[in-house]
Request: fold
Amino acid sequence: MRDPMLKGPAEAETVEASTDVATILVVDDEPMARETLTDLLQAHGYAVITASGAEEAFERLHQADLILLDAMLPGTDGWTICREIKERIDPLLPIIMVTARTAPEDVVRTFDAGADDYIPKPFQVAELRARIDSRLRAHRAEQALQEANRQASELAEQNYRLYAQARQDAEERATLLRELDHRVRNNLSVIMGLVALERTRGAARPAGEALLSLENRLRAFLMAYEAFRRSNYSGVPMKEIADRILQRLRNTLRPGAQIATSVAGDDTLVPERYGFSLALALNEVASSAFRFGFPGDRGGQIAASIQVETDRIEVVVADDGVPLEEREEPDRAASAGEQSVLRALVETELGGQVSFDPTAQGTRVRISCPVDPGRSSQ
Reply:
């Protein structure tokens, strides 16, 4: 027998195996409703636990990733349960109210109680799944943000303790302390700048894409910093950094693609300030080439050259892929966003120039900046 809550076909769709199975807590006083929802949700790949009322629901909250909560429960109703959970137990736990009462005042009451969403009875199976998946995605994003904030807080506290301990050291370590303070401030400024570049990039893009872009920028910065440290803080080996960035982006953005990379130039060390910004600029250019220059199975080559002179540094990145003006509209728009980041890094930070030179095939980007010895380590 079909449950009266359901509309539309009840056949289960094929569900791919997942190592991250969400657990849904179904709270309903009707045994048939609990059984129907359990069968339906399990058929679509969710783990299910059930409760018939408030007491059982509170006992099983810790097992749930999301709650489907009947509003019209006898005794303690769903709105009261929802408010109790949100105000006193777990404000981030997603709750979807299931109710036949859809008058405007009832909808307002549902959201006033703290519910994240509601679905009216009877409902379509596809709509229920869509609402569940939407809330789970939002919940996981909130959890990821909380974890990132926790780690950032721990890191900040750890840095503070290290700094406080260093200040208590003997006078002979004063020079080291000043250098440590200088580098921490510089590195934090760079990281904040990377986040700001994404925020001011222009058109918003999907969170996953934005996070991957930010990760690649941070890794490029880390590569430059580690090489700078290995040089005993003498400078950044740009040829080595360029080669590592190209290889990593190929493995990350286009694994298995037949795209060759090469780097020409010498291993002259570049001053710290220029090395970090140029590593980030090269990451932007190469990312755009890998993502948009070689659609489908198209192969080709991305070549970089590094020229370091006393008063000028020049980095050229050329590819034989699809030229900028011939790319699809979404790709051109994304490339434009990355170009704005590139110009901010080179023109604003280094007082340099970025040019897109005409070529018979592909795209050629030239980055040129003057070297001011007085600003090399700022």
